[in-house]
Amino acid sequence: MNALARAAAAEWLKLRSVRSTWWFAGGALLTMLLVAALEAKDTAVFLRKHGLPVEPVSSVVEGLDWVQLIFGSLGMLAVTSEYATRSIMVTLACTPSRTRLVLAKVAVVGATTFLAGGLVSVLGVAASAPVLRRYWEFDAGQVTGRILAIAAYLALVAVLALGLGTLIRRSAGALTMLFALLYVLPIGLQGLATSLNAEFLNTLAAYTPMPVGERFIAGEAASGLVLTAWAAVVVAAGLWVMRERDA
Amino acid sequence: MITLHGLTKRYGDKTAVDDLTLELTPGTVTGFLGPNGAGKSTTMRMIMGLDSPTSGTALIGGRPYADLDRPLRTIGALLDAKAVHPARSGRDHLRAMTVSQGLPSSRVEEVLALTGMAEGARRRAGTYSLGMSQRLGIAGALLGDPEVLMLDEPVNGLDPDGVRWIRTLLRSLAAEGRTVFVSSHLMSEMERTADRLIVLGKGRLIADEPMERLVAGSEVRVRGPRLRPLADVLPAARWTGPDELTVSGHTTEQIGRQAYELGLPLYELRAVESSLEESYMRLTADSTEFGASA
Ligand SMILES: Nc1ncnc2c1ncn2[C@@H]1O[C@H](COP(=O)(O)OP(=O)(O)OP(=O)(O)O)[C@@H](O)[C@H]1O
Ligand SMILES: [Mg+2]
Asked: How confident is the model at residue B293 (pLDDT cuts 50, 70, 90)?
């Protein structure tokens, strides 16, 4: 095994050997099932009223607003929990290359959250099906694509949060930043756009992670690239800090 | 082997480690002493590549830590026993380390047996006593069967049995030709474990001596009824009792002859071993930062 694979294997072992990981996974699943089932009717009615297509994932997309923070926390904790417990010292003693360590964490968190995200959305579709079935147009190929996009979206949010964790090191700070980036930034920019009468701020708002993610899930591949760029830039910034600052 | 060259670390205008140049050799237990805040842990963190030096270098077998491919196979270190994720079991903690170094998983059970943690390692590390954490940390340091061992206050929190176990362990590791670097505040324990001592004070190297030199009988105790004339001719003499002088830097022969020439009766004349603690106190008298004002 090469050095990166060894580091990733260690990260995977660490991730699954703490109970909180499983609590997060369970929490994300439960939240999605509840939201998907409970919002199914309202979502379908709302979409119909606006002449929009009702898809099998429509209710799951509503659940993402909630679930993404859980995925984000999971990604962030892969780094911040090590700083909080100082076990980062042991991790860096084993894998002194900061680049390799961050890549290993990104790979493990990315792959895990992608699979978990896929599973959560499939089960979410199932949970909303009893109600949504009466409204949706089912197209197996389209549903598969949507679910893969949702899984990728959740994985990218988790990796973005991992990057914020590397950048800020403290859970509270990183979580605040994630919340700001996802929810506050687009709304803030839109607000500014209105009050300053500056249309370009609206355009800017449309390129923040959440709106980009919405378009990506709706089938716009290019938006996926923008979201990937967001995650990559934040991770790169975190890596830079990790290399420059003392552990 | 560990080589430090001009190693310096400054935090703002505070110099934690000041121009440290040293070579730690295989087959030796080197003790690392110094008052609180002297810079021992900082030195070790720089050796591990956790903190980057302001200037100077720290090399392990000629290479910086970051260049080691499977570092734990070269150097095993315990810097902070409590630096373990509290929710993870000791065994899983070691397993992750093992995987990262491409070591066989059987190593985990071996080092757990060696440190007496085979039972305890099942539990979450957050439930460990300080001594158990130290044992787990030492298990981690031994995992890669490394040439170099570096331990920061490993006996802190260990029971007498554990203290003795560490002493024998470190001695035998050095006897196998490994480089052992260990810091401690327990002088009597250091005296029994180390071959060589490095003393740091306010970041600076204040002594680097073989143990014999620091505990050797460099002092002579003289007792007699009329020692004043002797004290007058020996500037190195100090009164340690109403009729007792302690003289450093002279042999019993020199002092016996001196007393004979002055015509002084003596009741006692003997070389005394100063303990490491006494030598240490003398060496660091000027560099204790956090001493209680008596
Ligand atoms: N991250 C930091 N920021 C600022 N100062 C620091 C930092 N780390 C260490 N120091 C300072 O550097 C000095 C050396 O600390 P260090 O922990 O190396 O001492 P030590 O010899 O290990 O002490 P002790 O015996 O108490 O463990 C201290 O004055 C400490 O306050
Ligand atoms: Mg220390």
From this structure: low
Site to substitute for ligand 1 among B7, B33, B36, most atoms within 8 A of C-beta: B36
Q: What count of other Cβ atoms lies within 10 Å of the Cβ of residue A23?
A: 12
b/e code A94-123 from CB counts within 10 Å (16+ = b): bbbbbebbbbbbbbbbbebbbebbbbbbbe
Q: Are strands B75-78 and B55-60 parallel, antiparallel or unpaired?
A: unpaired
Q: Residue A229: pLDDT band by 50, 70, 90 thresholds?
A: very high
Q: How confident is the prediction for chain A on average, in pLDDT?
A: 95
- The interface pTM score, or ipTM, of the predicted complex is 0.92
For ligand 1, what atom is nearest to the CA of residue B40? 21
Token output for A86: 């100082």
Number of Cβ within 10 Å of residue A14's Cβ equals: 26
For the beta carbon of residue B145, count every other beta carbon within 10 angstroms: 13
For residue range A130-185, what is the model confidence (pLDDT) as tens digits?
Answer: 999 999 988 999 999 999 999 999 999 999 999 999 999 999 999 999 999 999 99
- List the single residue in A with minimal CA-CA distance to B102: A6
> What's this model's pTM, rounded to 2 decimal places?
0.89
Question: What residues of chain B lie within 8 A of the CB of A19, using their CB?
Answer: 87
**Cα-atom radius of gyration of chain A, to the nearest Å?**
19
Q: Locate tokens 């493990």: which residue?
A: A108
Q: What is the pLDDT of residues A56-93, one digit of tens each?
A: 999 999 999 999 999 999 999 999 999 999 999 999 99
Element (DSSP H or E) covering residue B292:
none
Q: Is B34 touching ligand 1 by the criterion CB < 6 Å?
A: yes
Chain B nearest-CA residue for A77: B85
